[in-house]
TrEMBL record:
Keyword terms of this UniProt record: 4Fe-4S, ATP-binding, Bacteriochlorophyll biosynthesis, Chlorophyll biosynthesis, Iron, Iron-sulfur, Metal-binding, Nucleotide-binding, Oxidoreductase, Photosynthesis
Pfam families for this protein: Oxidored_nitro (PF00148)
EC number: 1.3.7.7
Protein name: Light-independent protochlorophyllide reductase subunit N
Cofactor entry: [4Fe-4S] cluster
Family stated for the protein in its record: Belongs to the BchN/ChlN family.
NCBIfam families: DPOR_bchN (TIGR01279), PRK02842.1 (NF002768)
Binding, [4Fe-4S] cluster: C29, C54, C115
GO biological process: light-independent bacteriochlorophyll biosynthetic process; photosynthesis, dark reaction
GO molecular function terms listed in the Swiss-Prot or TrEMBL record: 4 iron, 4 sulfur cluster binding; ATP binding; metal ion binding; oxidoreductase activity, acting on iron-sulfur proteins as donors; oxidoreductase activity, acting on the CH-CH group of donors, iron-sulfur protein as acceptor
Source lineage: Bacteria, Pseudomonadati, Pseudomonadota, Alphaproteobacteria, Rhodobacterales
Amino acid sequence: MTDYTPQPPAAGCRNAPIVKERGQREVFCGLTGIIWLHRKMQDAFFLVVGSRTCAHLLQSAAGVMIFAEPRFGTAILEEKDLAGLADANAELDREVDRLLARRPDIKQLFLVGSCPSEVIKLDLHRAAERLTERHAPHVRVMNYSGSGIETTFTEGEDACLATMVPTLPDTDERQLLLAGALPDVVEDQAVSLLSAMGIEPIRCLPAHRAAETPGVGANTVVALTQPFLNETAALLERRGAKILSAPFPFGEEGTTAWLWTIAQEFGVSPETFAKVTDAPRARARKAIAAARETLDGKSIFFFPDSQLEIPLARFLTRECGMKAVEVGAPFINKQIVGPDLDLLEEGPVIAEGQDVDLQLDRCHAARPDLTVCGLGLANPLEADGLSTKWAIELVFTPVHLYEQAGDLAGLFARPLRRREILSDLEGAA
């Protein structure tokens, strides 16, 4: 019988010591998740309760087209609101009433706090309950925090999905739930591969529309598509769902291991699995090989940013021949990323959290061939002669599954090729 479980190294990183740092950090706040979530959820609206700074951040980061009607906005808090001189609840109710009167297509409204409630003088949880009663059954109002004090970059999505889980209807249906927002093209590929194996029904969280919202129960099997859904996974488990433990679907090996874990749960035969995956697996290996010529033997250093760092380090070391020097992540939940840690050969420093000055010192001392970091660190590191890759690109670019494996490897190969070209030009001059 063919077994598609990847062969681990002699010693992996699951039990490696973790450097835990709790100092100054360089990472986007959780509000950024709105930028991909508002595109994914077609009848949802994200109303950020915050300052003009938050409004400018979202408009700039999202690059909203002048002709587009976005599905997010900002209820701006003025000085009198922050000072408690105005009835902020009444003002928020008026803003929501105006919004829903103008946009009757909205079925899900998220109130997103840009600061803790102690700062904005609003209990958004109570506000969401009050507004749900007011606008039910046409609109469900929910809330979560995107505050940079309470959340980092991708935690915004986790917080959003986590606030949805208690509202999901109960179901006893045996089903597969894919949890995590994927670009539509990637989600379609995942559903197509799994459906071809005979697995059904397949639901997605988040769904494109409120009417497609999945149920959850004791017969729900959850396959996480993103490694940062810590709270969402815990809440789904509390609702009775079974969370599959698997490497994440980055690269050929990771995608095969992820699909094989699901296939085994649903009794798919190795013959059927091979019939469905052999061709895309071959395409993925071929696409990765083109980038591996550039990446093989090169060292890489990950600053903590998106929580994708551990699965990506596994992909780059095992499939692209790179050597990981340090793998930093904002949080490390071994229940979720443990399978990837098992496959990551021991050797790199594994760091959780950040003290940016200390980590910069380690990076400068290591002089890696490639550094994955946030936008704020990239230019200083480039000025110091280090090649960098923006971590944010890895969240906004389709990188999961077989058909994107070559693109994923290419994202890391391009800055190294650019450095080689510039060096050649300088040498010729």
